[in-house]
């Protein structure tokens, strides 16, 4: 036994990854169905790409002589070629379009959903595996395509139930910033450009003095971890920080002017021009956008929490062209599914998505078939006209007390109880578990509890009567 224990693997989850519970999964599925409906309404079609790509297809994340660069999870196949878990859904789309360039219509409008993986330092709300839901237009150089993506992003937020005062789609253009970076001595290809972009991208999280540290020598956070800066001098940093000054008149490129006119004429007041939007990835070449939630919720400790950015994207005219001998314009938007689902959960609280099944308890092992018959008929009665109400019979070996504990752990709204006395009388007991907890909190001893039977009702044992009582409980 000691040897077995010593060799037993430890149950542990790798840092930066998470298990998901039923309520979260159901809420995410419902949310993704709503997003898909919006994307379809705008004429976008579904496509899937694999989780694994050749590492060189991911652009800047290329393998060095011994291992892949920081940022991706990668391994070598039996041909000693580097493969990587996809970092996002955009680079795989660019590879697919290039590979099927003569087949796909252009402009090519598609959407994709799936897991992406980043080999980066995890932290609160920052995971190494998370889900994205992308929509892209490949083959349209006009800023009208950027405007369309922004308006569709706004429709998506409203389809999910966010009011116009609760979110904003913020838009900027990298062309102004790229010009300034070249002006201060950081031409295209300079490795410091990406560090600058990532520093500016944190403007919604840090005050300007902290951004200045990231543009300069670097910044040490509260934990003592040090992030190396871009190494700009004071003059260079001031030029970049001037773009983030909310009191200054924004420098508008021609594409921003067009986007602004189109969205205004179409009535999308929630799409706004904001010079602080940059996006941290280097492949963006023009307009960039970010979906931001503006409302606050409170965490378990009562502290205010603001979710901020829950999605973003932009124009990436160079990605497809990496694979073929011509430039191919493209633009797109990505929803951060996990973050957006967390925001919805925090705002809405518990919902039907978190509710467990109605449980039919088994009081008499000699009549299991009768309990199963009741369960099947009740399931059929409750799940009509599009309703989804899970119903199950307890199939464990434990007694009544353990069955009630099981129902509680499953988050069941109610349990159906029929012992020998109830069967003889043609009755069942239905216990409302949520109301029962509330009532039991005011009962001081067991005798009082037995006499009161809090939130428990007796009804006739015919299925329609039971179903009506259950509906009254679950609402």
UniProtKB/TrEMBL annotation:
Q: Which GO terms describe its molecular function?
A: ATP binding; histidine-tRNA ligase activity
Positions that bind L-histidine:
88-90, 118, 132, 136, 279, 283-284
**One GO CC annotation, please?**
cytoplasm
Identify which top EC class this enzyme belongs to. Answer: ligase
Annotated Aminoacyl-transfer RNA synthetases class-II family profile domain ranges read 29-357
Query: Where is the protein localized?
Result: Cytoplasm
Record family assignment: Belongs to the class-II aminoacyl-tRNA synthetase family.
Assembly, in brief, is: Homodimer.
Provide the protein name: Histidine--tRNA ligase
Q: Which organism is it from?
A: Acuticoccus sediminis
**Gene that codes for this?**
hisS
């Amino acid at each position: 036994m000691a040897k077995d224990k010593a060799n037993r693997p430890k149950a542990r989850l790798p840092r930066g990854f998470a298990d998901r519970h039923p309520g979260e999964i159901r809420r995410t599925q419902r949310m993704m169905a709503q997003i898909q409906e919006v994307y379809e309404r705008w004429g976008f079609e579904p496509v899937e790409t694999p989780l694994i790509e050749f590492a060189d297809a991911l652009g800047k994340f290329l393998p060095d002589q011994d291992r892949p660069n920081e940022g991706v999870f990668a391994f070598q196949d039996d041909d000693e070629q580097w493969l990587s878990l996809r970092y996002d859904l955009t680079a795989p789309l660019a590879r697919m379009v290039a590979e099927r360039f003569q087949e796909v219509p252009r402009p090519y409008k598609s959407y994709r959903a799936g897991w992406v993986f980043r080999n980066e330092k995890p932290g609160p709300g920052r995971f190494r595996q998370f889900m994205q839901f992308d929509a892209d237009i490949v083959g349209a150089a006009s800023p009208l395509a950027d405007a369309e993506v922004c308006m569709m992003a706004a429709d998506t937020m409203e389809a999910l139930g966010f009011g116009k005062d609760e979110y904003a789609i913020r838009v900027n253009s990298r062309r102004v910033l790229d010009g300034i970076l070249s002006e201060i001595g950081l031409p295209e290809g300079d490795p410091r450009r990406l560090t600058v972009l990532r520093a500016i991208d944190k403007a919604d999280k840090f005050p300007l003095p902290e951004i200045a540290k990231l543009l300069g020598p670097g910044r040490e956070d509260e934990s003592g971890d040090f992030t190396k800066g871009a190494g700009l001098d004071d003059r260079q940093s001031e030029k970049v920080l001037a773009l983030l000054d909310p009191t200054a008149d924004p420098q508008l490129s021609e594409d921003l002017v067009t986007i602004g006119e189109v969205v205004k004429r179409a009535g999308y007041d929630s799409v706004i021009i904001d010079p602080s939007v940059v996006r941290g990835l280097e492949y963006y070449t023009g307009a960039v956008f970010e979906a931001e939630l503006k409302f606050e919720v409170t965490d378990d400790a009562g502290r205010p929490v603001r979710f901020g950015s829950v999605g973003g994207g932009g124009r990436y005219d160079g990605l497809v062209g990496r694979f073929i001998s011509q430039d191919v314009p493209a633009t797109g938007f990505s929803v951060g599914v996990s973050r957006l689902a967390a925001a919805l959960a925090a705002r809405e609280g518990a919902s039907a998505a978190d509710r467990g099944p109605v449980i039919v308890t088994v009081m008499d092992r000699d009549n299991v078939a009768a309990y199963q018959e009741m369960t099947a008929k009740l399931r059929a009665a409750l799940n009509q006209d599009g309703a989804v109400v899970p119903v199950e019979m307890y199939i464990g070996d434990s007694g009544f007390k353990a069955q009630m504990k099981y129902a509680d752990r499953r988050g069941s709204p109610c349990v159906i109880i029929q012992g020998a006395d109830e069967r003889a009388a043609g009755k069942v007991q239905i216990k409302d578990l949520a109301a029962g907890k509330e009532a039991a909190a005011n009962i001081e001893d067991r005798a009082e509890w037995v006499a009161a039977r809090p939130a428990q009702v007796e009804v006739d044992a015919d299925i329609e009567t039971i179903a009506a009582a259950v509906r009254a409980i679950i609402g």
